[in-house]
Amino acid sequence: MLRVTESEVRNLLPYSKAIELARDAYMRLANGKAINPDRVWLTVPNGASMFFMPAYVSGQRTVSVKIARLNPRNSTVSLPTVMSDILVYDSQSGVLLAEIPGESLTAIRTAASSAVATDILARRRVECLGLLGTGRQAEAHVPAIQQVRDIPRVVIYSRDEDRRKAFAGNISRDNKVEVMAAGSPEEVVKESDLIVTATTSHTSLFKGELVQNGSHLNAIGAAEPNTREVDSILVKRSILVVDSREQALSTYGDIIVPIREKAIEATHIRAELGELLAKKRSISRAPEDITLFKSGGLAVLDAMAADYILSQISGKTL
């Protein structure tokens, strides 16, 4: 069995390729050329939440299963709050081919997914990218979104002042962009017209009425029924697109809570991203409209990336 390292993932999966793969994954899923079963969600009382995410893409010789674990309390004992691994199997024999660590792969493919959504939904000219969160996911979104939009300025916030200042310096150095550390989420929202929320928050990060008309948001953090990063006001104001309608209505608190509060109905979801890419649905956006892409991660994105990484290592298409 092959054990892929984090450094190999980062070297073999550049953002340009990851965006291409994400776009292809969404298209294949929308066109019925991929199998992406509902993820199995298990929460241990007073312990971790665990997600089991299998997928298969038609024509590939591999099947991937991601096992992701989440526990926000891990930070108090110097452990990662989110951990994941991808197991890759031969689709015919079922033999285990490889184990791929999930941190870098998940960050890159999630940021690539947001970049695809940004390219479709955001205005062509962006004044400022706002980041809420300073983890690996937030970090990956800057170079990914730079693939689809010119970003003149970045404003970031997280609760730890020292961490956000250090993060701002790293982002500026690594991506050659002006970066400012904000003093509050509200400051980020007021400064930005393209926003990424990448936190483990259980409650909304800011008031939805603060978001500028014409903004686009990628909400990629909260992925459990009772957690949320954005409030019902913002969801109601937005043209809402999701990675998976079924998954959004069963596990995304950002969608479930507003429905429960009767702020929106399920029909407020205008489209899945893959439906837009495959031209099975379309949306029109006025300059003042707010667009919101809510994603929780699809296994088909992992499957496409994992298959590509193994093909690069083996020197042939798997």
The backbone outline, from C-alpha atoms, is globular
> What proportion strand?
15-25%
The CATH class of the largest domain is Alpha Beta
Return Rg in Å.
19 Å
Intertermini distance = 15 Å
Q: Can you identify the CATH superfamily of the largest domain? A: NAD(P)-binding Rossmann-like Domain
Domain module count: 2
* Proportion of residues in helical segments: 25-40%
Count of distinct strands: 15
Which residues sit in consecutive blocks of at least 5 with pLDDT less than 50? Answer: none
The main β sheet shows up as: 8 strands, parallel
- What is CATH's topology name of the largest domain? Rossmann fold
Quick overview of this protein structure:
The chain has 318 residues and is α/β, with parallel strands linked by helices.
Describe what you observe in this structure.
Strand 6 and strand 7 (96-101) form a beta hairpin. The chain has 11 helices and 15 strands. It has 318 residues and is of the alpha/beta class. The protein has helices spanning 6-12, 15-30, 102-121, 136-146, 161-175, 185-191, 232-237, 245-251, 253-260, 273-277, 299-314; strands spanning 2-3, 34-35, 40-43, 49-57, 62-70, 82-90, 96-101, 129-132, 153-157, 178-181, 194-197, 216-219, 238-242, 269-272, 290-294. The longest helix has 20 residues, at 102-121. Helix 2 (15-30) crosses helix 3 and helix 3 packs across helix 4 (136-146).
